[in-house]
Design brief:
mainly beta; 4-stranded parallel β-sheet; 0% helix; 46% strand; Pectin_lyase_fold/virulence; Right handed beta helix domain-containing protein; Beta_helix
């Protein structure tokens, strides 16, 4: 389990980055819970992404990602 909060963005996956994130909680970040860009393509499972100032998930500049069994809420 990982808890990521009180940062600019909880997680940034970029430049063709990969990874599996399971059981994470990303909340209370200044911008987004998770940002995906430049081919970043994680697998995020059983995670909660909520109460972030700008939004929960931000995908841009060819970012990708798979989310399974996650709770994703709007911005705070």
């Amino acid at each position: 389990m990982c808890i990521v909060g009180l940062r600019e963005s909880g997680m940034l996956v970029c430049t063709d980055g990969r990874g599996t994130f399971q059981g994470c909680e990303m909340d209370a970040n200044q911008f987004y819970g998770i940002e995906l860009q430049e081919g970043g393509n994680p697998l995020v499972t059983e995670s909660k992404i909520h109460s972030n100032k700008q939004g929960s998930v931000h995908v841009y500049d060819d970012g990708l990602g798979t989310f399974q069994d996650c709770e994703i809420e709007e911005a705070a």
